[in-house]
Request: fold
Amino acid sequence: MNLNIALLPGDGIGPEVLAQAVKCLEAVEETFNHSFSYKEASVGAIAINRKGAPLPQSTLALCKEADAVLLGAIGDSKSDNNPDAKLRPKEGLLMLRKELGLFANIRPVKVFPSLIKNSPLKKEIIEGTNFTIYRELTGGIYFGKKSLNEEGTIASDLCEYSETEISRIAHLAFKAAKNRNKKLTLVDKANVLESSRLWRKVVTQIGESYPDVTLEFLFVDNAAMQIILNPSQFDVILTENMFGDIISDEGSVIGGSIGLLASASVGDENAMFGPIHGSYHQAKGKDIANPIASILSAAMLLEHFGLFEEAMAVREAVDKSLKKGIMTPDLDSNSQYGTNQVGDFIAENIVESDDFNMNDENIDLGKSTII
Ligand code: IPM
Ligand code: MN
Reply:
């Protein structure tokens, strides 16, 4: 398959982790005979520095032309935490989502058996956790009308949703649930918010066309508790923009590191893939950032184009690196491995997956040829 991929390395650790995902995609090209082409553009703080805008026109044009976008990370601590900043790097991400019509953000939360000890939660609680969050991404309070009075003393952000905005992502979430464990949980605040009551109405109605999917409702405050108390009860969670932002960070804690969580943002015409974490400036250039979220985002990209075997090869290579302890210091404080080495190991295992599987059998038999 030929694919044109737009690369947006962005800020902080973004370029470092993205480079590892590209290594893995190149390994997939080589192993499975595909041809991917890569074109790079700037977004976020680096784009403000270079071009005076967080999302330059040329970057947007490149993304629109591409089959898919692969994103590193966006943000810089100075302007992110300064309420008076004129140009905000993260605006670049919000504009990208809106301009590309990426209304559904898909964030899988899974516990890797080899990392169970990394979780701050007890083993009995987190075992078997495997759910996916469908977060609405182009509406709600993020994009509603904003206002600030002249004195600068009263501010508001409007949370608005239309039936159309709710139903298009609800269909995607129901379809996903149908192919998984057939349970969909709508997370809302329908006891207080009018917009949440519309979500319930629309989602309930759509649910009638998916009779084999069980639909449940959970208020967001209760959901925040349930995700920690009993995460394995969830299969697909559907929710609006802001609640999805919050509970996906919460979900990332279950697996032991936010550096493991990948995401896909999809719309009718475009798709973008990238880690859920931020730009983590403190780690920039230190070769310590975890590249796995970025690499797993590349796996989601492959799945998006129906390249399931290829995505599986990437996932298996990631599993292998974790099993063998080839991981960055966020997962093992004594680790000697850096971002680059972890990326190299995973990419090499994609290329040599067959040989390595054979060798693993030998390891089990005590006849390994490499140890
Ligand atoms: C995320 C991020 C973004 C969001 C920020 C960077 C605007 O936290 O993708 O979860 O809030 O959506
Ligand atoms: Mn977030």
